[in-house]
């Protein structure tokens, strides 16, 4: 368990699940989510020390130590819904929690209904460092952060959402019925927190219908104090020269793809191509003939796995790059923040 571990969720789950969790409950769930390895076939029982968890989220008083079992008990009771087509899923976050008295250890496991949204994700997912949400003070900030992070690279440069839809996602419709209060205690508070402690920030524009504010345009940008890439590069330098060379190839993948992608996304593409940069360049070149691609990383991985062919029978040769040997497992662990 570490603040640099990555939380991974499907974009559909982020944009289509509505739930009401306290700030402490969200931090428990997201800390647990950061321990999930995306390649896992099933959820595992994840164990950690309660005092380490308390230190991670900034809680130090002894009274809070006894509060954790109460928080998880309440968390087990909270059922939320996910709608997908004609299917309605009603589930709790956790299927079980086990405390071992005298050891200070707790074991938790996610509900199996969450598997499609957290495991074996090949495309249309969002990843971020756990550290981005740990210092947040408003319970709405982690949810809005995920919503914006999921839409960070929209081609039009913004994401627009109806006010009532946002209220519903945040379960704030009955708490702040007046828009002025919703803006002050939810939007502006989150804006302040994200700018101060996370890797993204935002400006927003209020859209009116007649005289009523009916939707909000969020303009999302990467924060200037985001040092994620520097941290990844620094950690790779401490492993061995071969992995540093691999980092150069990850940067090469990012140069080939003329869209902003993360180091982890570049690694996934590299792995799907079995380290062959020529294949990456070849399949990416085919994307120019596709009218609209919502998720370029997912499309390229799919193109590689399914061996997409050049449109209209064109054959392109790509022999500029020498294929190298990779220690993918070690490299992936470092990029994903696993120890």
UniProtKB/TrEMBL annotation:
GO MF annotations, alphabetized: DNA-directed DNA polymerase activity
Start and end residues of each Initiator Rep protein WH1 domain: 7-149
A biological process from GO: DNA replication initiation
Family annotation (SUPFAM superfamilies): Winged helix' DNA-binding domain
Name of a matching Pfam family: Rep3_N
Family statement: Belongs to the initiator RepB protein family.
Name listed for the protein in its UniProt record: Replication initiation protein
Organism of provenance: Clostridium estertheticum
């Amino acid at each position: 368990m570490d603040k640099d571990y990555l939380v991974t969720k499907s974009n559909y789950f982020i944009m289509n699940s509505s739930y009401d969790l306290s700030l402490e409950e969200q931090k428990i769930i997201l800390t647990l989510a950061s321990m999930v390895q995306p390649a896992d076939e099933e959820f595992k029982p994840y164990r950690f020390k309660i005092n380490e968890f308390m230190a991670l989220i900034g809680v130090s008083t002894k009274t809070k130590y006894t509060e954790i079992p109460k928080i998880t008990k309440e968390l087990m009771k909270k059922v939320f819904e996910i709608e997908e087509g004609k299917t309605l899923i009603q589930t709790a976050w956790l299927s079980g929690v086990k405390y071992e008295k005298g050891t200070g250890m707790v074991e938790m496991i996610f509900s199996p209904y969450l598997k499609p949204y957290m495991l074996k994700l090949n495309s249309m997912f969002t990843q971020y460092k756990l550290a981005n949400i740990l210092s947040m003070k408003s319970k709405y900030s982690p949810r809005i952060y995920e919503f914006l992070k999921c839409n960070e690279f929209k081609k039009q440069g913004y994401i627009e959402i109806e006010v009532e839809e946002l209220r519903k996602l945040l379960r704030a419709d009955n708490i702040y019925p007046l828009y002025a209060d919703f803006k002050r205690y939810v939007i502006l508070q989150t804006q302040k927190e994200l700018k101060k402690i996370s890797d993204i920030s935002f400006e927003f524009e209020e859209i009116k219908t007649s005289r009523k504010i009916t939707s909000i345009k969020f303009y999302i940008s990467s924060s200037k104090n985001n040092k994620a890439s520097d941290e990844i590069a620094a950690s790779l330098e401490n492993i061995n020269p071969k992995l540093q060379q691999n980092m150069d190839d990850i940067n090469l993948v990012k140069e080939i793809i003329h869209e902003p992608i993360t180091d982890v996304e570049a690694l996934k593409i590299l792995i799907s191509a079995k380290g062959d940069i020529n294949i990456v360049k070849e399949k990416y070149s085919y994307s120019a003939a596709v009218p609209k691609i919502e998720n370029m990383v997912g499309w390229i991985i799919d193109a590689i796995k399914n061996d997409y062919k050049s449109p209209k029978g064109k054959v392109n040769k790509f022999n500029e790059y020498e294929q190298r040997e990779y220690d993918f497992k070690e490299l992936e662990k470092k990029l994903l923040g696993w120890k």
